[in-house]
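Appendix C reproduces, verbatim, an entry submitted by the partner laboratory led by Prof. M.T., so that reviewers can inspect both the input and the predicted structure.
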Amino acid sequence: MSDYSEDTGFEQDDEKSKSQVKRELHALQDLGKRLTELKPSQLERLPLTDKLRLALAEAHRHTARGALKRHMSYVGKLMREQDIDAIQAYVDLLDSSSQAHARHFHQMERWRDRLLSGNADELEAFLDAYPGAAADRQTLRQLIRQAEREAAESKPPAAARKLFKLIRVHVDEAELPGGFANDED
């Protein structure tokens, strides 16, 4: 008597169980739900199909529990056609409770601290790491000098905050998946 996997030509080890498929579909629905909670400007930066963009925009119109559940199933179905890894990475960076967000934020803080250390080579290192910041070289220098003056005079760190925002713009442009910029403020 022959084995089932030999008769059909399928390896049972390679196939996903029905439970595994359901878990993956629920994960896509959950990711879709997280996408509905993003700002429109954040959604614009994601590489989504037009159908999914429309479905995400329509999700807020569904108020009945059953209708919303059906709609989120539809969003989950549309999510199968997307680059899930890039979308997940972007959503994780926006989620302040994720480790990816914390790492990203700490990296920007380290750059700010390095720039404010008083070492002129740190600005060049930043410009080497983020070539897009070269256009803001003068603004970076001014903010660094202003922040140093504020620190010496024991004033509130307004320039250091502005410097951090400018660093954030350039780091986000270079490092967020797909070059997405972070609109979180």
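The domain at 16-82 is CATH 1.10.60.30 (Diphtheria Toxin Repressor; domain 2). Additional entries are available on request from the coordinating office.
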